[in-house]
Specification:
This protein has about 160 residues and is mainly alpha-helical. The chain has one domain (about 5-160). It is built from 7 helices and no strands. The protein has helices at about 5-20, 25-35, 40-45, 60-80, 80-105, 130-135, 140-160. Helix 1 packs antiparallel against helix 5 (about 80-105) and helix 1 (about 5-20) crosses helix 7. Bound molecules: zinc ion. Zinc ion binds near residues 36, 37, 59, 97 and 101.
Length: about 160
C-alpha cells in the first residue's frame, strides 16, 4: 500500500484525538503513518533493491512494539500525559502502516519467532513497473476508498 498511508493516518489520528479529547499532535500521526517507508531511501540508495523493504527492521512490528513498551515503562515514573498521548498517536499510526502493508505487501508479524510474511492478497506483476501492477489491481480501490474517506472527513472538519 502506498497511497492510503497518509489518509489512513489522518483518519486514525482524528479518531484518537476525539477519543482522548486532544486537539494537538495531528502532524505526529501523519509523520508516523508513513515513517516505516523511510527505509525506501536505504532500499534504493544503499541496498540497491537487494532486499524487499518490508523485511527491514522499520517494517517489523516487534521493533515498534518493543519501543512503545520502553516508552510506556519509562513514562510510568514521569506520568506525563503529553508523552502518553504522543506515544499513542505515534505508535498506533506506525502499527496502522504495518496493518495496511499487510493487505497486499506482506509483514512479518511473528518475527523473531517466524519470518513468515503475512498478507491478505497477492498483486501479480502484470506490468514491468511494479506501481502500475498495483494501480491496475482491484486492491487499489481500497486505497482510493480510504483516500476519499479521509478527504470527506477533512472537508467536514473544516466546515465545523
Ligand atoms: Zn510500508
Amino acid at each position: 500500500m502506498f497511497l492510503a498511508h497518509l489518509p489512513a493516518g489522518y483518519l486514525l489520528t482524528k479518531e484518537i484525538q476525539r477519543r482522548i479529547h486532544e486537539t494537538k499532535y495531528l502532524w505526529i500521526g501523519l509523520v508516523a503513518s508513513v515513517l516505516p517507508d523511510i527505509d525506501l531511501l536505504y532500499f534504493y540508495f544503499v541496498d540497491h533493491r537487494q532486499t524487499l523493504h518490508h523485511e527491514y527492521w522499520t517494517h517489523l512490528p516487534i521493533f515498534w512494539l518493543t519501543l512503545w513498551a520502553f516508552v510506556t515503562i519509562g513514562n510510568l515514573h514521569f506520568k506525563s500525559r503529553g508523552v502518553s498521548t504522543i506515544a499513542q498517536i505515534f505508535f498506533l499510526n506506525v502499527l496502522l502502516h504495518l496493518v495496511l502493508d499487510t493487505f497486499a505487501g506482506g509483514i512479518s508479524w511473528l518475527y523473531p519467532l517466524s519470518s513468515h510474511s503475512f498478507f491478505f492478497v497477492t498483486v501479480p506483476a502484470t506490468h514491468a513497473f511494479w506501481m502500475f501492477s498495483f494501480i491496475t489491481h482491484w486492491s487499489f480501490l481500497v486505497e482510493l476508498a480510504i483516500t476519499v474517506w479521509a478527504i470527506v472527513a477533512f472537508v467536514k472538519s473544516k466546515k465545523v
